[in-house]
Amino acid sequence: MTVQMCVLLWARAGAQEALAAYEDKVLALLPDHGGRVVQRARVTGAGGGQPTEIQLLEVESQAGIDSFMVDERRTALAAERDAAIERTEIYPVELS
After folding, report:
1. How many angstroms from the chain centroid is the CA of residue 18?
2. What's the pLDDT tens digit per position in 40-93?
3. Whole-angstrom Cα distance, residue 56 to residue 41?
4. What does DSSP assign to residue 30?
């Protein structure tokens, strides 16, 4: 069963470009796990507590998500992620 999700990401102060660079790296791994990026957007404007980046992702199965999350290439970047990303929220969605 295809899994669709919306991912909201908040950068640490001053780390917007680092967040984007990290996401470029890890999202490139998604096809190896049966997934794809449907859409990626960066929020414009300042303040208000909004996320820095919004992603719509689609993965062929929960097993694909699980394997992506433990991919050694991804987990090797944990320090880079922690330095760039303050908060992540993931919501299941139905894309139309």
Report:
1. 13
2. 999 987 666 899 999 999 999 999 999 999 999 999 999 999 999 999 999 999
3. 9
4. G
